[in-house]
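Quick one:
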Amino acid sequence: MKKHTLSFLLPAVPVLSTGEAGGQDALRYRFQIYDEQDGRLDVQSHYLDYEHRRGFSKYGLRLAVDSLSGMTPTGTHARGNQEDWLFQLIEDERRVAVATIEHEFDDFTLTFEYAHSKEQDYQSNAITALVSRQFNQKNTTITAGVAYAFDEVLATPFTNNFEDEDKNTLDLSIGLSQILSRNTLFDLNIGWGRNTGYLGDPYRRISQIQTITVTDPFGRPFEITDTFDYPENRPGEMNRFVAKATARHYFERANAALKCSYRFFDNSFSQQGHTLEVKWIYQATSELSLTPYFRYYRQTGADFYLPSLTDSGIDGTGKIDGSGPNYSSDYRISEMEALTWGLRIAWDPRPDLTLDLQIERYEMGGLDSRTPSNFFPTANVISAGVQWRF
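Output:
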């Protein structure tokens, strides 16, 4: 079996590392299929990463393509029938490029990143800067970061916005990583963020059965009861707080590590969320590792979430500018829970080559009595990757 080192406790990162083969460059490709049941969304993703080290500097480039198709709930129901919820077919493709530069000097590490993504109805540009410093004979690391994204929600013939809308995001973070013993690591990360601009889903609408008064050609008024659909109108700003604690411990006799993490978030939409994750990283042989994992997530609903405006006391306005009244039928901001479990298998047939396969099951469910159960998807996720260090 592989002899234990502290690196066995370090988390697997999506961006490449040079590993133990001594190479200066690394290339990784990953393919993933996210498949929701009952004809819901299907997402196929391709990721290509390249990393190059030169002295105390590291340069990385990631290219990604996500292709999405399938059915998703619109948040509206059929005319006059609140039990017949409507779904629509969507197709889209997203292209992403991320460039990273990292430089080490003395006890400091500086990291800069630029990311760009584009799809038919959305484009994003984001910059990130991180600085970390090691203390206490490199047993303690403090990291601070700032990220800013300036995005645009693009107008299309199928979206609620008739012109391009801005969305801006600011994130501040600080983190502590502490080696507690030869076999134990502890991480604590705290973040604050703020979103402003158009924060809604440009496809999401909400239904309301209303009785209105109209006038016939002879000027005589009469009442009509019908179902009317309005674009959702979320607030134009949101503040967020996030905290995450992670502990890893290596069990020498089992030649395995246990990783446990807890994440809490709170935002100004009156939402709170809790995530608990457990991983067992077992080094079966010097070439093969098995990682079963389990993750549970639970959140409260946003204070403006409503499946329908009927009998809510709120009349739809057609506004999307964030001013009141606010409402959204997006099931993803309802009171809900999600359960994920899976297995990752990694194999090193050669010192410079790693192959891995990950199989995952995802189940989402509502916790309130008003959101239709068929809004919440279940999905199977399969991904496979190869990494070559040279």
